[in-house]
Amino acid sequence: MFNIVEKRRWYFLIAGLAILLGIAAMVVSTVRFGSPVRLSIDFTGGSLFVFHFDGPADEAAVRAVLADHGLSEAIVQRLGREEENTWQVRTREAAANEVRDLLNDMEARVAPLNRDLLTYETVSPMVGGEVTRAAGIALLVSATIIIAFIWWSFRRVPHAFRYGVAAIAAMLNAVFIAFGFYALMGVLSGWEVDALFLTALLTVTAFSVQDTIVVFDRIRENLPRYRNEPFERVVNRSILETIHRSLATQLNAIFVMIAIILFGGETIRPFIATMLVGLVAGTLSSIFVAVPLVVAWELATRRRAAAV
Amino acid sequence: MSRRDVTLLIVIVVLAGLSLFIDLNISHPAWFENLMFWRPQGARTLDIRQGLDLRGGLKVLLAADLPEGQALEPTAMQTARQIVESRVNGLGLTEPVVQAQGERRIIVELPGIEDPELAVETIRGTALLEFIDTGGVYLEPGTIVTTSLGGPRTVVTPTATPTATTGITTTPTPTATLAPTPSPTATTSLTSTAEMTPTTPLTPTTEVTPTTASPVYETLFTGAGLVDVSLARNQQNVYNIPFTLNEEAAQKLAAFSTLHAPPPGQDGYYPLCIVLDKEVISCPVIQSAIPDGRGTITLGRATYEEARHLEIQLQYGALPVPLRVETISTVGPTLGEISVQRSVRAGIIGLSLVLLFMLVYYRLPGFLADLALLLYAGLNLAIYKLAPVTMTLPGIAGFLLSAGMAVDANILIFERMKEELRAGRSLETAIEAGFSRAWTSIRDSQISILIACAVLYFFGSNFGASMVKGFALTLAIGTVVNIFTAVVCTRTFMRLVFHLAGNWLRSRRWLLGV
């Protein structure tokens, strides 16, 4: 029988490295942009425009118009290829009555605007702060409920607490990796955290727990059945029995998500990519972190008992 | 196959047919659409409702803007919402949405509008309450008029709004009379006037269109003249609204009411119409002269809600709370179309891969799971159309993801089945064991997803983050539907196949993927 549990130190090391990479990205991001992940206007407040011009438009002209409207502190980025003439502009909060003039000026001084493709979004700084707070609360609440649920569903297994802790460790691992991935993408290609990112994280927590539950469920079933086998062996058997399912399920989710990333709408691409990374990390950490943790814990207590 | 399986099979086939019928992009018969009793009349259509990010338009999140520490009356917010809604309806857009979000926010969605300034102006502008002289004509509430202070706001799209007319026909208009506020001793005199003619001699002439040359009515005084308004009920359970006017308005009303008061002992005939933002809200008839600016509007057959509504409108003709714009977002119409096309393409490719994988990897059971997945997609779509669920880009992603994950339950079952077969169990016991043993895993994992969805939905509803809400909703619906299709349907299919071709299958185990 292939022994997965035996090499657990390696998995812990790999998981640790993945998290370290994320932390490094967050440090770089904090140094460069002032926060571990780049925050969108959903959190900071401000305005975001995407202008599609019907004709060549250069950055200097766009900036000149912005400056005349008191929006000189703007982040101006090109979207897509040069011939698409699409610019994304992020500024401080622009009032509704300023916007009309700004658009007219852009049209008059840069190039004709394609208003059918225009997007404009503004968030007041006040609501931004509130969203940040609520986001934190939402993450905490769902994590707490899910932990309580795991504890409840394993209440008849000896040492239910350990399973709970191990499941949470795996979940946090997945969330951390997803977070680190986003920080990295923020540094590399300017991805900003918005409400959808939070959605991705919460979904990752739920699906990561789902994977862990399936493996633990099998351990719960196998423990009384193979009473004569050592604990590690039973656990290893349980992993091997469920690994087909985990991989098959992952594969299907990956099919769908890759399809959305490649062919779907541009605006949700970071959202789906984060979810993809998180889901894969979640499955791997339920097999290679949660289960080995339970084994390590069991062996440690046994060793201590033997020493006494 | 037991009788229960046969019943289930029939249920499944009927559901499949029904959802196919609903999903098809045909014009559905009106009687069928009218079966959707949970939706208001006039909104019973089987069209997919698209969110702003798909159809283009403008979304504004408004919040009560009160100084720190000042308490917000719950009714004030409700009133503000109603006022905003009536103004938005005046824009004549199709399916505008005005919803309360939490305790102090209002979300306004305006499909097809692009000018944020116009929208914000419409929503936040102060409403004008006027008392007009119609020259003796009784105007039905809901009538749009032009007064000496100007006409109605220019409407952007001239498309007829059927919703406005239904509003008039469904609510019976209570009759109202206007009389001086009686002194405490004069309660008996009020009872004599409590009976009034329900019909006014002059019925409104069909419909007054705002654009054509309609008469210009003279404004006697505006809401600024109202000093105090309250709501009371007399011994006959008839509601009345006592009011007090300031000096200037009192003089106007005194002159007007003395001129048009009926002779003693007769019923009143001359109305004083109350107009909010050029829309008639009530037309009480003058009962007697009101010399001192202290009068009472007696509402004939009005219910408490109707009376309260009128009181609120009189009291807060303007918004009862100042509103601050918190977020605005616009999406160009073409952008939405492109998003829809791309999502559909991504969905078809992704789901085809899933279908193919299941077929190749699990053979016959995989094929049955594919059937169940198609049914799953059909049922979900039907629910979106029936409920209706507003589809957004993340909502579509949530659906696709849930479809990809939907086969997870099947995979759990089939893997279990294979194991049992390898352990030497008979075909029949292996199939049943696959379903029963996998059930706890399926249940537990679905519950954890539903928990996350609930938290997301709650978070999304509080901040107008309809994107988050859409994703949570479609994922949650998918998860519940999934339990039915992946477990119940697939099991029934398996039993049917086994029943029809059990012996044939026993010699072809490769079909089961073993």
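qc> Residues 269-307 of chain A form the longest helix (39 residues).
qc> done
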